[in-house]
Design brief:
Two copies of one chain form a homodimer.
Chain A (H helix, E strand, L loop, with lengths): L3 E6 L16 H19 L5 E6 L2 H9 L3 E4 L7 H16 L4 E4 L9 H9 L4 E5 L5 E6 L13 H11 L4 E3 L3 H4 L5 H10 L4 H8 L2 E5 L6 E5 L3
Helix pairs in contact in A: 1-8
Amino acid sequence: MNKLITIIPVSSFNNSKTRLSPFLTEDERKQLLQSMLKDIVEGIKEEVSEIIIISKDPEVLSYAKTLEISTLLEEKHERDHLNNAIIDAIKYVKENYEDAKILILPSDIPLIEKKNIDYLENNNNDFIISPSKGGGTNLLYINNQYDYKPLFGEFSFFKHVTEAKNKKMNINIYDSFYVSIDINTPQDLGELLLHGTHTNTYNYLSSLNIVVENKHGQERLNVYRKDE
Amino acid sequence: MNKLITIIPVSSFNNSKTRLSPFLTEDERKQLLQSMLKDIVEGIKEEVSEIIIISKDPEVLSYAKTLEISTLLEEKHERDHLNNAIIDAIKYVKENYEDAKILILPSDIPLIEKKNIDYLENNNNDFIISPSKGGGTNLLYINNQYDYKPLFGEFSFFKHVTEAKNKKMNINIYDSFYVSIDINTPQDLGELLLHGTHTNTYNYLSSLNIVVENKHGQERLNVYRKDE
């Protein structure tokens, strides 16, 4: 079977996840990001041939090395940093592996696990995609069609499907709740606290005394810090 | 193959979906509920043997008849109306069908479709459950173990799994994003507008000029009424 190479772009540990500020301090958000990356790597590493983190932040690359995964230094791009970083990473895979299949994942989906990767291997598609909440893309699998153009950003799920149709790819929409949970808001932390009790991210949030309870209002979950 | 009977409890058309008020008027919320029920019925009717709506609201039961599905008048219960209504419906199924399998669905998951039901039939489990956002349960399948006790309410997903473990049932957690989308808040309407362009509910919301756009803030989606 051809290799499955996972690409995880990470912008930077600092100034990230700003929608969780002031709920979490900057240092806490950085530790949250590290916990989530660790969960993703532990969740999928047995099932994929290699994991490559691409980032312009030396601290991210150093942290990736502690997880014993590969790193790529992101080149400077004038604009559309995320998609250009992914294009560079796809080029790197094309040049270094023969006919590898590519999986692109965001760095904030700590509930992804072994069985999600098994699904990709068990389905013989050119293109597999999973939605995130809010119209985004949380999993993008390309079976060696390296000219596929990543279009991450606003409502990317639909743009990605259209691009795959334009390329005449055989499309599979992988309908997964756990993959859809990316962590950007206190509500998302609540979902993680409910469904991710096995994760490093859960342990980290618990160490901050962050808990979740049911709420009857516009938001479903009340996520707050307990007094010690 | 044994029959698969679907039970959909509906409390009432009036005074429901209050988290969507004042975004939608009471009459609009009632029409939204009708659209969602129609989507569920159209989405699954070919795949199940029968669909039974249980409600105490005569208007709900009349509407169900226009969809050509079965109805049960909900008995009065002092407390825990929802779970007691479901217990009554399970009893009805037990008395009227031999060894039927039971599927319990909420009335507000218009993105459910044929393939979700196919999944149940293709997996030979005693118990299949799907999470909703916020720790709830959006799909509960019981393979003729009629003493299973429904525990809908706060964080019911986890209570339901525990109950199935206690009953020594063979458990399958069915990880579905589309099943997880129940419609309670404007954010949920946004998800429906994005992913449900094929639904009656989408057409109804569009007739009200309700649209969705991307948002960068605590909420992912901005859902609003366009000026005509």
